[in-house]
Amino acid sequence: MDDFNAKVGKREPSAMSSVVGLYGLGERNEAGEQLEDFCLEHELAVANTMFKQHSHVAVYLDLS
User: Fold this and answer.
1) Distance between the two ends of the chain, CA-based, in angstroms?
2) Domain-located, residue 63
3) Whether the Cβ atoms of residue 20 and residue 46 lie closer than 8 Å to each other
4) Contact, 49 vs 28, CB < 8 A?
5) Counting Cβ atoms within 10 Å, is residue 35 exposed (0-12), middle (13-18) or buried (19+)?
6) Cβ of 33: how many Cβ atoms within 10 Å?
7) What CA–CA distance (Å, rounded) separates 33 from 8?
């Protein structure tokens, strides 16, 4: 299987899909649609969209 390069985005609260969660990032593209169809067909889920992700903020201190 090739790399999908998919962006699944986030599920709308009114959508009934069990594949994509509420916490996806970005806008869904065509590959994201194909990935969702693949997951539905094989009873899979995009797990990292099911949980709220922490923002990664780096703080640098000048100790000189």
Assistant:
1) 52
2) no
3) yes
4) no
5) buried
6) 14
7) 7
> What tokens appear for 58 in the block?
């780096």
Cβ atoms of residues 50 and 21 within 8 Å: yes
- Residues found in the chain: 64
Asked if the structure places residue 62 within a domain, the reply is no
Q: Tens digits of per-residue pLDDT, 17-35?
A: 788 888 888 888 999 888 8
Q: Confirm whether 4 is domain-assigned.
A: yes
**Segments forming the whole domain that contains residue 23:** 1-54
Number of domains in the chain: 1
Q: pTM of this prediction?
A: 0.69
Q: Considering the domain boundaries, does residue 26 fall inside one?
A: yes
